[in-house]
Amino acid sequence: MWKVFSKDEKGFTGLEAAIVLVAFVVVAAVFSYVMLGAGFYTTQKSQEVVHTGVQQASSSVELSGDLIAKGDLTAGSECLDTVTLCLQPTAGGSSIDLATTLITVSAPTCAPTDLKMPTGNTYSDIPFTGDDTTFGIAAVYNDNGNENLLLEKGEKFEVTVALKSVVPIGANENFQLEIKPPQGATYTIHRTAPASISSIMTLV
After folding, report:
1. Less Cβ crowding at N or C end of the chain, within 10 Å?
2. In terms of DSSP bridges, do strands 174-180 and 135-141 run parallel, antiparallel, or are they unpaired?
3. Using 50, 70 and 90 to split pLDDT, how confident is the model at 57?
């Protein structure tokens, strides 16, 4: 008779086990989701770091052709007056904003001097002053028609730098130009003035 009032707990242990199993499955699923999310985030950041590193390490601009120099033939102080170089983007490189690009001129006889573009929206409305703080665009080839200061794929910008106002480079003297775009590695050009200064010279 007492069995009628007793509780039957045969299924209680099975219910507890099921609850624990479900809890473990839920925790494992949440943990897996968190780990997979962290893995995807790490992979994405690694790709971004590699991409940024390649952009910073590789140069985005290169020299096309030789440097053409004009000489100042003043007796007793013959030196290079200006140098003109043609710049183009590297293969697969992005556009270069010359408005924010620096050209650093240095020589054994002077400290490095940074030159920048004069202020302007297009290359056609920027006069080349030839002073010791600027460089100018002498010509543009394969222009896309927008006249902006972006050196884009297929374009070539002919840039003139006034050396004399920065440092007079005499015969057989070395100098260096560093093209520093806003993004990418610096492109360095080393040249030596010829043994005799002429009105027009090719520096190879």
Report:
1. N
2. unpaired
3. very low
